[in-house]
Amino acid sequence: MAASASSASLQLSSPSTTATWLRHRPLGLSSLSLRHHQPRRLVVLSMDAKPTILVSEKLGEAGLNLLKEFANVDCSYNLSPEELCTKISLCDALIVRSGTKVNRDVFEASAGRLKVVGRAGVGIDNVDLAAATEHGCLVVNAPTANTVAAAEHGIALLTAMARNIAQADASVKAGKWERNKYVGVSLVGKTLAVMGFGKVGSEVARRAKGLGMHVIAHDPYAPADRAHAIGVELVSFDVAISISDFISLHMPLTAATSKILNDENFAKMKKGVRIINVARGGVIDEEALVKAIDAGIVAQAALDVFTVEPPPKDSKLVQHENVIATPHLGASTMEAQEGVAIEIAEAVVGALKGELAATAVNAPMVPAQVLTELKPYVTLGEKLGRLAVQLVAGGDGVKSVKVTYASARAPDDLDTRLLRAMITKGLIEPISSVFVNLVNADFTAKQRGLRITEERIILDGSPENPLESVQVQIANVESKFASAISDSGEVTVEGRVKDGIPHLTKVGSFEVDVSLEGSLILCRQVDQPGMIGKVGSILGEENVNVSFMSVGRIAPRKQAVMAIGVDEEPSKQSLKRIGEISAVEEFVYLKL
Ligand SMILES: NC(=O)c1ccc[n+]([C@@H]2O[C@H](COP(=O)([O-])OP(=O)(O)OC[C@H]3O[C@@H](n4cnc5c(N)ncnc54)[C@H](O)[C@@H]3O)[C@@H](O)[C@H]2O)c1
Ligand SMILES: O=C(O)[C@H](O)COP(=O)(O)O
After folding, report:
1. Of 61, 83, 233, 309, which one is the catalytic site residue?
2. Comparing 489 with 13, which gets the higher pLDDT?
3. Mean of the pLDDT values across residues 235-242?
4. pLDDT value at position 440?
5. Cis link prior to 556 (omega < 30° from 0)?
6. For ligand 1, which residues put their CB under 6 angstroms from it?
7. Based on C-alpha coordinates, what's the Rg of the chain?
8. pLDDT > 90? residue 207
9. DSSP per residue over 93-126, as a string?
């Protein structure tokens, strides 16, 4: 008889995840279950329990108010990189726009405290995503609220450039009246190439069509039917740049798009082409653009974004008379900034509360309604992982875990990434000091050499629930609770969600039914009358509340496993007394 409170020191090895799919019938359940009380929850917040959120660039008032309801908010603008690194170690979340470089130094300086970086806008090229992921820091953005503002700014630049508005305005203000100098070009009937047919690009295309332009687009990843729906033809990169009178850039800055407009590609363009950039400065080789303007290939350029922001005062590009420039104003409308601020505040507060984020950039992005549906299963997965690893006694360490999902849903209708991540969290956190979340789960498993294979059992029946059951098995280990080893030799726990609450339904080969709240005592005993009463009264004497009890047995009066859910942690003395009950053969106390 052995009692053990929680963890063992284990080594995890041999990374990777694999998946297989099988077809089975639903599994039956036959266990005796007694519900005692609804578990009570006691939440105690200390005076300084509020998280701290650093806002390093100007954010709309409505968003700030939302943040302040939940956290201490430190609005510190124009921080130097050193100041940011100093402050960040005291912050749980950071909200930035495009002006703050959130590099590896920032994550290292946070020493694990920084849990969320919120990008109040779309482009996340100023955040080191690899470093964020390695540090388990979630990055969320606000991808929709500034789309229209950016598209409108693109159209504003297009029309202003075509009619020399900026230069003519400066000339009039300088006391001149140069009507012949500022003759423009018309837009109607001209060809516009939209490079990057995403949210902003498609809104620009829609508006340009309204101006009577012929719009084509290049985007290797955009669906043709979305383009056709607004009367835009998708073409190759070379066709787009070589036949167009105007080229408007709307792709993200990535390794593939960096300096995509360079000497070679400017040489392919139609003489007199006009360029608009409200995407990112880095997609244009700025030196090559100056040369192309001087060579007469590019007649004019209208730029909102630059490789270095702000650009140097003596920038040849900015100073060029055929260039108009704005200081990264694409998202800067009152409406967009209020929208972005609310969008990012909600995402950051949600993430700090531990909710799954729908706008996560470095974690699986799952639509909000799917997240809501999966929530209890995600909790189930984490708790099964926690239970399984606490049941391990020794062996060569936890190296190989198999997760089996039983579901009536079609394989492509069940996203298991969230579940796998939370099972991984449950498996790793009780035996290490590592903080595991959706962001770094796969990375951490790989680093620790934990191999997780996933198997899918396709059930017949109604696919109303995403999952019927989840089973977690750890191979090649011994257990501190021998009954947790299944007939096939693995530490095995299985659970399902009932009425929105995760339940443990199987331990080893024994069927039980206990809600996974509070903590758990598992006892193997010889089935006989009075056992529930004996254990219950030992716990009752200590005022430990039993939330659930369930007995799974091979046959009446044979071996049985009793699962007891408790709200409070029993003392070592009580656990010892349970172990001393004569019919109890082994027992274990597990923290959920
Ligand atoms: N100036 C501003 O203030 C401002 C405001 C909003 C957005 N932006 C920038 O505009 C860009 C687009 O934003 P969005 O919200 O439309 O993003 P989005 O993700 O909706 O669209 C980007 C599109 O670019 C496409 N793309 C990726 N690689 C490409 C390539 N090599 N060639 C062509 N297309 C490619 C993608 O398939 C996608 O459809 C981003 O760079 C964003 O940072 C700037
Ligand atoms: O990517 C974006 O959302 C835009 O570039 C806006 O950037 P900003 O928030 O710094 O204005």
Report:
1. 309
2. 489
3. 97
4. 85
5. no
6. 122-123, 146-147, 150, 195-201, 218-222, 250-253, 256-257, 278-280, 304-305, 328, 330-331
7. 31
8. yes
9. EEEE-TTS-B-HHHHHHHTT---EEEESSS--TT
Q: Of the bound ligands, which one is closest to the alpha carbon of residue 98?
A: 2
Determine whether 328 is an active site residue. yes
Atom of ligand 1 nearest to the CA of 202: 16
CA atoms of 400 and 368, how far apart (whole Å)? 32
184-188 — which CB contacts under 8 Å span 24+ positions? 185/274, 186/162, 187/158, 187/159, 187/162, 187/211, 187/212, 187/213, 187/246, 188/212, 188/213
* N-terminal to C-terminal alpha carbon distance within the chain: 22
- How far from the centroid of its chain's Cα atoms is residue 253's Cα? 20
Q: Which residue has the higher pLDDT, 523 or 46?
A: 523
- Please provide the average confidence, as pLDDT, over all residues in the chain: 87
Reduced to 3 states (helix: H, G, I; strand: E, B; else coil), residue 216 is strand
Q: Which protein residue's CA is at the shortest distance from atom 43 of ligand 1?
A: 123
320-347 pLDDT tens trace:
999 999 999 999 999 999 999 999 999 9
Please check whether residue 209 is in contact with residue 156, taking contact to mean a CB–CB distance below 8 angstroms: no
Residues 193-199 have a mean pLDDT of 96
The pLDDT value given to residue 449: 86
In the sheet that 138-141 helps form, which strands lie side by side, from edge to edge? 72-75, 52-55, 93-96, 116-119, 138-141
For residue 452, pLDDT over 50 is answered with: yes
For residue 356, the 8-state DSSP code is: P
Where does residue 38 fall: left (phi above 0), alpha (psi -120 to 50 degrees), or beta otherwise? beta
Own/partner long-range contacts of 100-103 (Cβ < 8 Å, ≥24 apart): 100/56, 100/57, 100/126, 101/126, 102/126, 102/127, 102/128, 102/132, 103/128, 103/131
Tokens of 47: 């005076």
Rounded Cα–Cα distance for residues 238 and 236 (Å): 6
Say if CB 26 and CB 469 are below 8 A apart. Answer: no
Residue 393's contacts (CB-CB under 8 Å, 6 or more residues apart) are 8, 477, 478, 479, 480
CA of 150 to the centre of ligand 1 (A): 10
pTM: 0.71
Instruction: Return the residue whose CA atom lies nearest to atom 37 of ligand 1.
Output: 221
* CA trace torsion 349, 353, 356, 362 (10° rounding): 60
Ligand nearest to the CA of 340: 2
- In the block, which residue shows the tokens 């004497």? 541
Which residues pair with residue 561 across a beta bridge? 524, 552
User: At a CB cut-off of 8 Å and minimum separation 6, what does 270 contact?
Assistant: 242, 243, 244, 245
Atom of ligand 1 lying closest to residue 278 CA: 1
Determine if ligand 2 sits within 6 Å of the CB of residue 98. yes
Mean pLDDT, residues 79-105: 97
- The total of other beta-carbon atoms located within 10 Å of residue 521's CB is 24
Pairing of strands 298-303, 323-325: parallel
Q: What is the mean pLDDT of residues 135-152?
A: 94
Q: What's at 394, amino acid-wise? A: G
